[in-house]
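Hey, can you fold this?
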Amino acid sequence: MPRLAAVWRGLAAAAAALLTVTVVPSSAVAGTAEAPPRSRSAAGGAGADDPKAPKEFVALRDVDPTIIQEIRYATPHDFMGVPVTGYREPMCILTRDAARAMHRAQVAFLRRGYSLKVYDCYRPQRAVDHFVAWAKDLSDQRMKAEFYPRVDKSVLFRDGYIAEKSGHSRGSTVDLTLVRLPAVPTRPYVPGEPLTSCFGPKASRFPDNSLDMGTGFDCFDTLAHTLDPRIKGRQRAHRLLLKEGLERAGFVNYADEWWHYTFSPETFPDTYFDFPIARSSLVRH
């Protein structure tokens, strides 16, 4: 066990030095549709009137700082084209049990030369409400060419791409991928730039430093189904590598999205939270 601990410390130190963590500049969130509460702090965190997270929630970085974080919904590079309501800081918040399970999976992946990268973790209900409002506005299709080129926006509810409740709001669900180490930087998205299909060849998709999973993250297409038979070869092997590693740590995949995993048993299986994503939402110990 002392040898294993030493190995882990060495891997963690090396990974921390090599990993490129996406940091969203303040200018990137300036276009958010969220109306700032009167009591919000100057730093953009939760205000005095905002709900706080229960003590069971933690920042993933406090549990495992080596896991790469690219919190897409804090940026304009998502299927709506604007930062999402409630994402006041680009950080991953999870229940403690889920975060510890993520750490266990990360230890195993680091030994094999990979790192986990999270796109989304806990998601407040206000963010889900933002998704729903966007889905009902059929005139707003600015990101269609990348995220849902073969799906009519009018069927997003019917086909299950958008729903009024999300397991992410319970705090034990993550959207994530794998990155081969050493990680190379992913360039930032520039609003208004030409869009390319999320299911095209990797070289033609928006750049992502992750392994090639056959589609990009949040691709509204049946090709994103984890075991879609059209996904073969290296792309299928990458999906199975992620799936098998997370299952060993206690996560269960959502079959329609290769990136979507829920830790089981969930700490809050029936509760949907709405505290904003900010360090100040968390209980200090």
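Oh, and this one too while you're at it.
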Amino acid sequence: MAKSPSHRFGQIIGDLLEEIVLPQLQAYCDARGLYLDKKGKRTARSGSKVSWQDRYQNVHDLDFVIESGGSDSVRGRPVAFIEAAWRRYTKHSRAKAQEIQGAVMPIAEQHHWDKPFLGAILAGVFTKDSLAQMRSCGFETILMPYDSIVEAFASVGIDARFDEATPDQEFAHAVAQIESLTPEQRAVLKAQLTNNNAAQLAGFFDSLKKAIDRGVSKVMVMPLHGAEREFAGVDAATQFLTEHDQTKVDDGAFRKYEIIVRYSNGDRVEASFEDRASALAFLGYIGATAH
């Protein structure tokens, strides 16, 4: 089924977003010995899409994944998941925000020991509520305003301002203009789009740097001992806690290790293990990428 000119126009802007972010992400990863997984062929996976599996065995296609220890032939540990998206109308922004969350968060949960950075580079029109929703779920989110997109296209002589009343022929004309841009004109367009949003992009990469360059600041290990108490209801459990003597040391049977890892950027990873070997394996996993 052929795509409408308006849909194709939206695709073009989405592609532009990825194009302006890609060189910055690649340079960032190259400087740190990290691998950037992006759309295209890679021997470590099938197809050309950046596909990752979540904890429920569902597969999601993503825009960018930064890996520690990754290469073309080896999939590494994910340290960042980054999505880029464009929306023109506020009525579609919450759905897009939820779509990104639904794809990324289950994968991040699958790799919770790595506490990966979650990022969304958005452009166009998104409501404050949709942005707040993403940020409350741990996403570092920036927005390139609609007017900055229009201004960038104007720099190469293209009118990109439109609304729901814009006829298809105007979209088709804009699409034809964009697709006929010379490499030099396309470079000007991307440079203008980048310059118009330089402050937002700088803030995003600063947050990414803090997350990826973080170091372990503290590790807390709590061996838990003592008999397990079971109660028939809340009242009985409440009475026990009310009467419990916290100063009395209970040296009963070992139950488990609780471990909390705190990072220099404020990130925190918690884990619970019933045997020493598993706890040591966890610390070895954390230590493998600790600074």
